[in-house]
């Protein structure tokens, strides 16, 4: 048995599972996965059997005698950053780190209109659909601004939001998938960042696993 198990929801839909999975993969730790199929009659029962919140993702850390359970995507990402400081899951510069935490929290708690109107469906291609209200358009504009601001201010050392891959990239990865599916108009810097994430090893590995499960 490996030190870590991550419990995920169906890969094509589960944005909240994708985020900490990408962060966990970046740590280089070996881990097992349990996938609970969403949108089934027994989903709730199956999730509640392992997760106290009734939601996935959930991380189980068995490195000590008493396994530690961590639930909620951002809490898992924070736990991994603390457990694997060498993975650089947050930027080392305090100012950059503060912004990375802020945009990650903004993603975690916000963009509800966009999330509702443009659900992640990993392999779907629905250009123009979902972008049906000013609230959705405002969310897209704000995300475009985040991508541009982070890339411009902090992204000089590499292609990710803060140069190297951080939790902020993991938090926005499902948005990148949505942007590929629904094709909203983006500014140049944001569009290039989307291309970077679509070519990311972890993103591709997530897609390959999702495809195998179809
Ligand atoms: N705030 C939570 C949200 C988790 C969440 O909504 N997970 C969904 C799957 S993506 C879930 O577990 N749904 C349970 C169900 O469908 O019964 C997080 O960030 O992890």
TrEMBL record:
It comes from the Bacteria. CDD domains: GST_C_3, GST_N_1. The keyword Transferase applies. Its EC number is 2.5.1.18. Residues 4-88 form the GST N-terminal domain. It is an enzyme of class 2 (transferase). Keywords: Transferase. GO terms for molecular function: glutathione transferase activity. This is Glutathione S-transferase. It comes from Kaistia dalseonensis.
């Amino acid at each position: 048995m490996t030190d870590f198990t991550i419990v995920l929801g169906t890969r094509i839909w589960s944005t909240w599972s994708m985020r900490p999975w990408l962060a966990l993969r970046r740590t280089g730790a070996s881990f097992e996965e349990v996938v609970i199929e969403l949108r089934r009659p027994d989903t709730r029962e199956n999730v509640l059997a392992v997760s106290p919140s009734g939601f996935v993702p959930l991380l189980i850390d068995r490195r000590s005698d008493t396994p530690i359970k961590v639930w909620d995507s951002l809490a898992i990402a924070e736990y991994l950053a603390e457990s694997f400081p060498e993975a650089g899951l947050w930027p080392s510069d305090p100012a950059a780190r503060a912004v990375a935490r802020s945009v990650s929290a903004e993603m975690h708690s916000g963009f509800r209109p966009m999330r509702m109107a443009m659900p992640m469906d990993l392999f779907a291609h629905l250009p123009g659909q979902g972008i049906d209200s000013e609230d959705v358009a405002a969310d897209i504009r704000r995300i475009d601004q985040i991508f541009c601001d982070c890339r411009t201010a902090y992204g000089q050392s590499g292609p990710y939001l803060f140069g190297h891959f951080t939790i902020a990239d993991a938090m926005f990865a499902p948005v990148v998938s949505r942007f590929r599916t629904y094709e909203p108009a983006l500014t140049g810097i944001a569009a290039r960042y989307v291309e970077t994430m679509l070519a990311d090893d972890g993103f591709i590995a997530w897609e390959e696993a999702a495809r195998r499960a179809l």
